[in-house]
Structures are given as C-alpha cells and as structure tokens.
Design goal:
This protein is α+β, with helices and mostly antiparallel strands. The chain is built from 10 helices and 15 strands. Belongs to the diacylglycerol/lipid kinase family.
Length: about 300
C-alpha cells in the first residue's frame, strides 16, 4: 500500500476540508492510499510539512486548499531529486491550477482522480529562488489577492477579492514603468499589470492567457499597458464574458527566459501570495513534478 500525506489549509475556501475530512480519508484509503494528514497552522507551514513528507518517504503529497496552499507545498518539494507525486484537492477560493488541470470541484471526486493514478508533468516557474505553480504578477491590481483577509475569503469566497478591490480602487489604477528583456526582445512601457502565466486560468477567469499550458516549458507573458479607465473597464468586461483578450493595449508573448525590472518598488505576487519585491530573472522548470489529473 502506498503512503500519502494530506496537507490541508483549515481556513481555505469555506473550511470545506475540515467538514469533509473523515470522508476524504476514507475515499483515499479505498484507493489503496494509507493516508495521514497535517493541518496548516500559519503561513509557510504547508511548505515545511511538504519538506517533512519528502524526508519521511511518502509516495504522494496532497495539497488541500487553494493555489496558495499548492504554491507552498510545491516549494517544499523543490530541493529534492526524487519527488513524490502531487495531488490537489481544490478547496480554496479560486483554484486556478486545479481548474486548468480539469480536476473536479467535487472534493471526493478529486480524491478519485488521485486514486485512479493518472499523472502528467507540471511545469513550475522560478523567480528569486522561489517557485510558482500558476502565476507571477505585479501591479497595484494584484495586491488585493493577499490583502483580502482569510476570514473574509472564508465567508465571501471570490467576492472577498472584489470587495477589497473596490476599497482600493483609487490606487489600483496607478501605472508603473517596466523594462522586460528576453532573448528575443526588449520592451519598456508604462503599464497597469504584469503577469507571467503557467496556465490559462488566472484569478478565477478562464482563458485569460489563452495559449498558456502547464506542460509546454514556456513562460506566457501578459502585460496591460497604461490606458484610460473606460478602456480598462471594457477589457474587464471581455474577460468576464470569457472571450479572448485581444486588444492593442495588451502585450502578450511566450518566451523561455525573462528579466523584468521596475524603477518603482513593487510587490511580487506568486500564486496569490506575497513573493517579495518585483525584479529579476523568471524561468520555467519543465516537468518539475508529476501531478494527478483526469485521464482525457
């Protein structure tokens, strides 16, 4: 029987994992996974728990929470050569990576996906010696993701981000200057938003970066140039309708390596969590971990 370690965020989403924990463990056990669990206690705890799981030789590590929990777990796996396989139970607010991997929203069905054993390679981004699984971002608009209190996210879900965004509307529209250097081009612009994507699902929206794939070995860059408020609202409407974001105020391309800098001190957002100051070298690590997902 294989051994699995379930690392779960007690406050993720609407505290769904706590409510379903006995059934989750039963379902995983029914698939031949001898499962123990660890409840996170503070920021960074999931990362330490993942390191401990590798040290103890678990075959599978399961992240139950949102993208932030997956982010911490994958960073806990990074120093090791022989990595356990990664399972994801989408219990968070957005669950962007799980949605990109087509992992079911139903938590028990997501357990079945892990038990069925089909895996695919998952690329992982790297910046400033930190890994990210779905997106790295900078810009005043991104700060609402880690400023929305966890309790508010538990109660309101995705609405917590919109509530925080309305509170900070006057500062969200401040542009900043960026310099991007790739092997193919150099770009200098005043922009509102900078994204490095690993999938097409970002911030609860599908097809925001339509060509992005979690297993193509590429960084997908999306930048929104400085523009007027009506133009920005029009672009947001396009995203909300699920239509491709094609606009002359958008810069979008793929690359293998990127150096990005700003004269203004900006915060870096990694998978919805604070990732230090924005600057430096971005790259993709192809197939860094094997992740369970449905068989297409």
């Amino acid at each position: 029987m294989k051994r699995a370690r379930l690392i779960y965020n007690r406050t993720a989403g609407k505290e769904l994992t706590i409510k379903l924990l006995p059934r989750i463990l039963d379902r995983l056990e029914s698939h031949g996974l001898e499962t123990s669990c660890h409840a996170t206690r503070c920021p960074g705890d999931a990362e330490e728990a993942a390191k401990e799981a590798v040290h103890r030789g678990f075959d599978v590590v399961i992240a139950a929470g949102g993208d932030g929990t997956v982010h911490e777990v994958v960073n806990g796996l990074k120093p090791n050569q022989d990595l356990p396989r990664l399972g994801i139970l989408p219990c968070g607010t957005s669950n962007d990576l799980a949605r990109a991997l087509q992992i079911p929203k139903d938590i028990l069905r997501a357990c079945d996906v892990i038990g069925e054993g089909h895996v695919r390679p998952l690329d992982v981004g790297k910046v400033q010696n930190r890994l990210f699984v779905n997106v790295a971002a900078a810009g005043w608009m991104t700060e609402v993701t880690y400023q929305a209190p966890s309790r508010l996210k538990t109660i309101l879900g995705q609405l917590a981000y919109y509530a925080k965004g309305l509170e900070k509307l006057s500062t969200l529209l401040r542009p900043f200057k960026i310099r991007m250097v790739t092997p193919e081009r150099i770009i200098e612009e005043d922009i509102f938003l900078f994204l490095v994507a690993n999938s097409s699902s970002i911030g609860g929206f599908d097809n925001l970066v339509s060509n992005a794939s979690v297993s193509d070995g590429k960084l997908d860059i999306l930048v929104i140039r400085k523009t007027s408020l009506p133009h920005l609202i029009q672009m947001v409407g396009t995203v909300l309708r699920g239509e491709p974001l094609i606009d002359d105020r958008i810069i979008q391309f793929q690359t293998e390596k990127l150096w990005a800098y700003s004269d203004e001190k900006m915060k870096l957002n990694l998978d919805g969590e604070w990732g230090g100051d924005f600057s430096g070298h971005f790259e993709m690590i192809p197939g860094h971990v094997q992740v369970f997902c449905p068989l297409k």
